[in-house]
Amino acid sequence: MADLPDGRHFFRGDDGYEQARAQTVWNARTPERYPDVVVQAVDADEVVAAVRYAAQHDMRIGVRSGGHSWAGNHVRDGGMLLDVSRLDDCVIDTDTRTAVVGPGMGGSVLAGRLDRQGLFFPAGHCKGVRIGGYLLQGGYGWNSRVLGPACESVLGLDVVTADGERLHIDAEHHPDLYWAARGSGPGFFAVVVAFHLRLYPRPPVCGSSLYVYPMACAEEIYPWARAISAEVDRRVELQIVASRAVPGAGIDSPSIVLASPVFADSEAEATAALALLDTCPVRDRASIAVPYAPSDLDTWYAGVMSNYPTGYRYGTDNMWTSATADELMPGIHRILETMPPHPAHFLWLNWGPSPQRQDMAYSLEDEIYLALYGVWRDAADDDAHGDWARSNLATMEHLQTGVQLADENLGRRPAPFATDAAMAELDRVRSVYDPAGRFHSWMGRV
Ligand SMILES: Cc1cc2nc3c(=O)[nH]c(=O)nc-3n(C[C@H](O)[C@H](O)[C@H](O)COP(=O)(O)OP(=O)(O)OC[C@H]3O[C@@H](n4cnc5c(N)ncnc54)[C@H](O)[C@@H]3O)c2cc1C
């Protein structure tokens, strides 16, 4: 019989169970779902033992790296919750520009280590997110419009399969499982114990532009952003964030912030790449207008995290679209009118048109990404704010081509996140590697 690690497994009813369960979820809105046992593994051998134990006791498994799944996808009723956040080793090879990194490594921590060695990886935009869940679902990170979703920089993975076997998977070894690992996200059907990553030289210049407009300019800003979307230099990530206040800028009124990182070879190139963003038709109404300023990742992380405070309750949803501004504006007005107080916010991300991607499960994206983040502190406001994101995007579903798994809300609003062909192939590969359904599938899909 396989053993569970002494002192690091908690059956329901044990002292420490609730703490071990709740601390796996970053969203303060901890799901009311209760696994039979929570197991905290510290290395790949313990992962093997835990998976074998689950197989022997016919338990299904939910895997957690950083617990930043908004929906707490890994927390399910019954079975095992396998916490691999302690697998956070990181070995960087500067000569080959590769790294072998555990799933529990924070993306921002990795980015910082690489930065100090003149290297770069398209890690996510927020602190706290671990690479385990981030890379499996795609990974929209720094300079991703140039480097691709981060899963395109995954050269291989070390995994533990449903029957407790350790495999290295890459383009030559188990290519079908490698294909599935790049884009299946919270429906992946093995445990990743390490990622083998391709690294990049650190771009010489990291800068940004910043414009803040009153929310009353929405009618001009979004149609303009849609009109220029295909022309925005791919080194520029145009993020438009609407919220009821911008405390970091001392603004206490509804505002639209255009904050755009750029990565380039020189300041002159960065400035030129950002120039298009200075052509907004209501530019003279901006309360803050900075066409270019040098920046760095620490500054960026601090800015982004002001919209994602820890200890708050979150309800998110999202959609990809290539709809016209005329089609989108009624829904956008409704989003802005019904928006809860800051830090709740609405993100418009200029993403496409995208180049041909690698052949992988990640297979659905579009020109514009819209994401709603309901954020509030008090559980008493769950009814008031909990459905803001889902309900608004449900009314815009006819304009949606799919959703990102990064901000998925599949349990409450099922939607396509991969092409039909990719879904069929995922089902086929799952039936080969996890025929008994040991690992939970996506919520909202039985
Ligand atoms: C504040 C915040 C900011 C974010 N910013 C970004 C961003 O900039 N870009 C972006 O792309 N995404 C972003 N996300 C989304 C985030 O990348 C995903 O939620 C991701 O899944 C989180 O990874 P995790 O390991 O922290 O979470 P987890 O909740 O641990 O993982 C999510 C799911 O992935 C699966 N999984 C995790 N680890 C493993 C493993 N080792 N083996 C097998 N399956 C596993 C499980 O099904 C799990 O339920 C953000 C999320 C938050 C909360």
Automatic annotation (TrEMBL):
<keyword id="KW-0560">Oxidoreductase</keyword>
<dbReference type="InterPro" id="IPR006093">
    <property type="entry name" value="Oxy_OxRdtase_FAD_BS"/>
</dbReference>
<keyword id="KW-0274">FAD</keyword>
<dbReference type="InterPro" id="IPR016166">
    <property type="entry name" value="FAD-bd_PCMH"/>
</dbReference>
<dbReference type="InterPro" id="IPR050416">
    <property type="entry name" value="FAD-linked_Oxidoreductase"/>
</dbReference>
<dbReference type="InterPro" id="IPR016167">
    <property type="entry name" value="FAD-bd_PCMH_sub1"/>
</dbReference>
<dbReference type="GO" id="GO:0016491">
    <property type="term" value="F:oxidoreductase activity"/>
</dbReference>
<comment type="similarity">
    <text>Belongs to the oxygen-dependent FAD-linked oxidoreductase family.</text>
</comment>
<dbReference type="InterPro" id="IPR036318">
    <property type="entry name" value="FAD-bd_PCMH-like_sf"/>
</dbReference>
<dbReference type="Pfam" id="PF01565">
    <property type="entry name" value="FAD_binding_4"/>
</dbReference>
<dbReference type="GO" id="GO:0071949">
    <property type="term" value="F:FAD binding"/>
</dbReference>
<dbReference type="InterPro" id="IPR016169">
    <property type="entry name" value="FAD-bd_PCMH_sub2"/>
</dbReference>
<keyword id="KW-0285">Flavoprotein</keyword>
<feature type="domain" description="FAD-binding PCMH-type">
    <location>
        <begin position="31"/>
        <end position="202"/>
    </location>
</feature>
<dbReference type="InterPro" id="IPR006094">
    <property type="entry name" value="Oxid_FAD_bind_N"/>
</dbReference>
<protein>
    <submittedName>
        <fullName>Putative FAD-linked oxidoreductase YvdP</fullName>
        <ecNumber>1.21.-.-</ecNumber>
    </submittedName>
</protein>
